[in-house]
């Protein structure tokens, strides 16, 4: 196996030059899971993170771990990930607050029921158990609660966990295996070398490697653009709330037409949008126009769910891009849509009116790296030593254990343990995309 060195600038404060086999750009849960699985295979790995581990997208996730409602291409990956989550606490020697609770996808109208039936057929075709249950069976999951759901799709193999704990646990386990993490390490750009490979330019020096993995979430597009690769990934912004703790102890997360919620161990709830409400907002910037045509069908199919905004967040992004002369997204905290948060909380209290006085512990917003067909890119792209793992559409948390295992096998053994053809970058230039209306 070839090795990698960090070649330091004379001004660098770092005095050692460790040798690695793989550099992973991005310290979110996907990057940490890839690093962990590479280290399990005895690779020497360094992870470069511009902020702190799990400080960006991975800390903003809902915590759902689901197979239901997925694009058919993601089903095998989701099924593998769900199986891995069941033993992950023991494997990583950490409390992840994991619960194999099942997840309920609820319906109110005939149109919602059709969505559930589509998801049920997809699950059964993939060999995943999902059960269509009526309102009486839903009431058994939430006894004594007011709800207007006529039926639901319950997938017992699904569950939930705490995103920050899981991300940090992957990082800690990777460190125990010898992975080096450099936090607050700004990657300035990728650089084409004379040999035709890609190296990583950081504020501390140049990282040259046999293998470079870009798993930098919304920052991935700007990084690979520097070596002539244009990818259709757009950032969208989502807002979430957490209630104060209550005495109510539930285990099953719900995604309904008007609200989604996940119960936590301490009795608090994460609360966000339903699948018929506003899911995310795209803030217009210079980055919006490179692949805008590919996203138009996605925006049309999800009108009312994804909204295009030109407000304060968009203006801030535009000023940043004009000053920096780059299409990157600012690192500052994204703007929280408090109006949307309030509406989601109101819908939550319609389900649990006795919790109306509970109050809100915190609210936050997060950026999601979206693709036109709503499935990720996991592909070599343009250079033999460059692997792109991005565009997870908010699904990276649930899929991370499987992604880490599959990508590490592809990098070190040349063969992925699951077929990744559907996630190739070239699909965006090969003809019509496989857009599946029932996928969420």
UniProtKB/TrEMBL annotation:
It comes from the Bacteria. Pfam families: DAO. The chain crosses the membrane at residues 20-40. Residues 21-409 form the FAD dependent oxidoreductase domain. One of its GO terms (cellular component) is cytoplasm. Keywords: Membrane, Oxidoreductase, Transmembrane, Transmembrane helix. PANTHER family: SARCOSINE DEHYDROGENASE-RELATED. This is FAD-binding oxidoreductase. It comes from Bradyrhizobium niftali.
């Amino acid at each position: 196996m070839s090795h990698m060195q960090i070649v330091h600038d004379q001004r660098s404060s770092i005095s050692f030059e460790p040798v690695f086999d793989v550099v992973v750009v991005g310290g979110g849960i996907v990057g940490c899971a890839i690093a962990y699985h590479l280290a399990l295979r005895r690779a020497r790995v360094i992870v470069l993170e511009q902020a702190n581990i799990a400080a960006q997208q991975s800390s903003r996730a809902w915590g759902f771990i689901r197979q239901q409602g997925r694009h058919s291409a993601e089903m095998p990956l989701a099924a593998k990930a769900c199986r891995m989550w069941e033993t992950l606490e023991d494997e990583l020697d950490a409390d992840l607050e994991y619960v194999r609770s099942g997840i309920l996808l609820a319906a109110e109208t005939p149109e919602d029921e059709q969505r559930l039936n589509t998801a049920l057929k997809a699950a059964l075709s993939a060999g995943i158990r999902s059960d269509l249950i009526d309102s009486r069976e839903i009431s058994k999951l939430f006894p004594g609660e007011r709800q207007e759901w006529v039926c639901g799709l319950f997938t017992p193999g699904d569950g939930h966990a705490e995103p920050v704990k899981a991300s940090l646990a992957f990082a800690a386990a990777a460190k125990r295996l010898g992975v080096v993490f450099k936090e607050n390490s700004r990657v300035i750009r990728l650089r084409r070398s004379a040999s035709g490979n890609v190296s990583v330019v950081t504020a501390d020096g140049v990282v040259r490697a046999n293998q470079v993995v870009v798993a930098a979430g919304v920052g991935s597009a700007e990084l690979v653009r520097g070596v002539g690769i244009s990818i259709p990934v757009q950032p969208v912004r989502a807002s979430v709330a957490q209630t104060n703790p209550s005495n109510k102890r539930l285990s099953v997360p719900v995604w309904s037409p008007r609200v989604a919620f996940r119960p936590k161990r301490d009795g608090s709830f994460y609360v966000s949008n339903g699948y018929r409400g506003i899911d995310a907002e795209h803030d217009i910037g210079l980055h919006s126009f490179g692949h805008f045509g590919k996203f138009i069908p996605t925006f049309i199919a999800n009108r009312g769910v994804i909204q295009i905004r030109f407000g304060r967040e968009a203006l801030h992004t535009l000023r940043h891009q004009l000053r920096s002369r780059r299409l990157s997204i600012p690192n500052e905290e994204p703007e929280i849509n408090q109006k949307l948060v309030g509406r989601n909380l109101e819908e939550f209290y319609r389900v649990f009116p006795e919790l109306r006085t509970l109050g809100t512990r915190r609210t936050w917003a997060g950026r999601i790296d979206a693709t036109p067909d709503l499935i990720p890119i996991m592909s070599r792209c343009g250079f033999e030593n460059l692997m792109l793992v991005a565009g997870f559409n908010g699904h990276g948390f649930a899929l991370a254990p499987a992604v880490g295992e599959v990508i590490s096998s592809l990098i070190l053994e040349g063969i992925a343990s699951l077929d990744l053809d559907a996630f190739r970058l070239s699909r965006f230039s090969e003809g019509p995309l496989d857009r599946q209306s029932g996928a969420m």
